[in-house]
Amino acid sequence: MNYRKLGKHGVKVSEVGLGSWLTYGGATENDAAKACIETAYDAGINFFDTANAYARGKSEEVVGKVLSAYERSSYVLATKVFFPMGDGVNDRGLSRKHITEQCHASLKRLGTDYIDLYQCHRYDLETPLAETLSTLDDLVKQGKILYYGVSQWSAAQITDAVTMTQERGFNPVASNQPVYNALNRDLEREVMPLCGREGIGLVVYSPLAQGLLTGKYKPGAPLPEGSRAADDKQNQFLNNGNLDEKVLAKVENLLPLAERHGVSMSQLALAWCLRKPEVSSVIIGASKPAQVTDNAGASGVSLSPEEWAEMDAVLA
Prior knowledge:
By secondary structure, this protein is an alpha/beta fold. The protein has helices spanning 30-42, 58-67, 96-110, 129-141, 155-168, 191-198, 245-252, 255-261, 265-274, 289-296, 305-315; strands spanning 3-5, 12-14, 16-18, 47-49, 76-81, 115-120, 145-151, 175-177, 201-205, 279-284. The chain has a single domain (3-211, 229-237, 273-301), classed as Alpha-Beta Barrel (TIM Barrel).
């Protein structure tokens, strides 16, 4: 496993990180989740990402319990805040009240004294940015979080945050967690160049496009049993029209390129994301240890610029 700095910051994260969206504490049984996390740790993955909203806190509990078996300094633990965690009017968003209360709740569920990376799961239009950033800065000073980041913020929103942290002397935004994969490259227009300039590490999610880039879904074939698309609890793209026959045919045409390099389709797709120096880590989701092992093998895979261009042409 190779490691990269989180943007300009000193902490290093594994090129492949393990997430828990739609899996641990929810669709995946706890024993399977434990096996996946242990396999990831053994493979050199040190970056583990979760969120308070995943299964309403159950994901944090599962991840925290498994990781408690390891030396705390040996891994980088990330979680998030924003989405509703109750029915009250203050049980959501990025107010000082909600961030503070949820940070304490996450610490308890994770069973740890500090969170390495605390992320704003979305942008809050109802809370002043200064309130959000000053609260995060206070949590850093209190030692409850070490770094903080954002997720799915626009370039303009990130720019405003960077400007405010500089003007007010707050600890800087350390990371951004956006969607990024070979089928969704919107990030490259504005957000990626901005994060590169400001030293904000990109820890991208859905690098396999919810499994579309693994090659498991074949054009004209039924959905594989046990796959994410076949599971109502995990299906995030069928109803959005993303499981398109034309897309599946293009993905299948990548197989010769993967075979030429002796890598799996998943490894090829993850390495495609990691070809960008702005990307600190790709966050995978796995319900089976074998998936973790395969995905971890993407670290260090390198193709020539011409071969990446070949891949882009196939998917264009």
